Amino acid sequence: MSKPIQQHIGSVALVVENYDDAIAFYTQKLQFELIEDIDLGGGKRWVLISPPNSTGTNLLLAQASNEEQQRSVGYQTGGRVFLFLHTNDFWRDYELMKTNGVEFTEAPRSEEYGMVVVFKDLYGTKWDLLQLNKATS
Question: pTM to 2 decimals?
Answer without folding.
Answer: 0.92
